[in-house]
Amino acid sequence: MIRLGVPSKGRLMEQTFDWFAARGVRLSRSGSEREYAGRVDGAENVALVLLSAGEIPRELRAGRIHLGVTGTDLIREKLAGWRSHVQELAPMGFGHADLILAVPTCWADCDSLDDFASIARDFRAEHGFRLRIATKYHRLVRAYLSAQEVADYQLVDSQGATEGTVANLTAEAIADITSSGETLRANHLKIIGDAPIMRSQATLLRSVAAGDTDQVAAFAGQLGLAMS
Ligand SMILES: Nc1ncnc2c1ncn2[C@@H]1O[C@H](COP(=O)(O)OP(=O)(O)OP(=O)(O)O)[C@@H](O)[C@H]1O
Ligand SMILES: O=P(O)(O)OC[C@H]1O[C@H](OP(=O)(O)OP(=O)(O)O)[C@H](O)[C@@H]1O
């Protein structure tokens, strides 16, 4: 039996169901609205596993699911050396979001990453502690800032409502996902730099550890995908 891990709620779940339906495989939640059980019609030997999108990378790495749908941001953040754990089978064309660095709109002299680096240096000298960036994307933000040679900062963990941390005085800057930009605007924040830290979208991934390669390849073939 192939185990297929899919986000358990919200738009990501609905759009995943639509994506499979367009390829002849009907996924659905069974039981009551609150029960995390699922069924699969139109494919043999495939079991649906409903999971938090944030847990799907770990389940793929452990080989507890053969296939999984989640954002590429979560794969790269949660799996060090992700290429040795998962194979990307298909970008799915939804769940588009950019991981960005943002500062208060009122920081008039801060638009580029160079501006940010110099403000961070001055901040440390002036305040005696490093400028705080609130984020849940620790690995991606560290790697990005290190490549850009920004060093005078500290990360503050924020697992939600990250854009509120600046007004709440627990951080000076944030690194988070944005799509429409509305949450940033509502919290008086602006994006730094020309390009995002990374661009993400929902992706169908195969677990390297889970094995059963022939069965997984047959199912991928049914979906019209090649598995190299
Ligand atoms: N506003 C958004 N627009 C589009 N995609 C988004 C948006 N916010 C988050 N995402 C994407 O959705 C995916 C799931 O994110 P989220 O952090 O909500 O998952 P989660 O932590 O598993 O959620 P939960 O724990 O509430 O189930 C990520 O890949 C993220 O990039
Ligand atoms: O650019 P926008 O379209 O405004 O979307 C961005 C927001 O969406 C996500 O939050 P989500 O609603 O998933 O909640 P979270 O704060 O718990 O991450 C993300 O963390 C941003 O806060």
From TrEMBL:
Q: What does this protein do?
A: Catalyzes the condensation of ATP and 5-phosphoribose 1-diphosphate to form N'-(5'-phosphoribosyl)-ATP (PR-ATP). Has a crucial role in the pathway because the rate of histidine biosynthesis seems to be controlled primarily by regulation of HisG enzymatic activity.
The pathway is: Amino-acid biosynthesis; L-histidine biosynthesis; L-histidine from 5-phospho-alpha-D-ribose 1-diphosphate: step 1/9
Q: Which reaction does it catalyse?
A: 1-(5-phospho-beta-D-ribosyl)-ATP + diphosphate = 5-phospho-alpha-D-ribose 1-diphosphate + ATP
Q: What is this protein's record name?
A: ATP phosphoribosyltransferase
Enzyme Commission code: 2.4.2.17
What's a GO biological-process term for it? Answer: L-histidine biosynthetic process
Q: Which Pfam families match?
A: HisG
Task: List the InterPro entries hit by this protein, alphabetically.
Answer: ATP_PRibTrfase_cat, ATP_PRibTrfase_HisG
Q: Which GO terms describe its cellular component?
A: cytoplasm
Question: Which Gene3D superfamilies does this entry report, sorted A to Z?
Answer: Periplasmic binding protein-like II
The molecular function GO annotations come to:
ATP phosphoribosyltransferase activity
UniProt keyword annotations, A-Z: Amino-acid biosynthesis, Glycosyltransferase, Histidine biosynthesis, Transferase
Q: Which residues form the ATP phosphoribosyltransferase catalytic domain?
A: 53-212
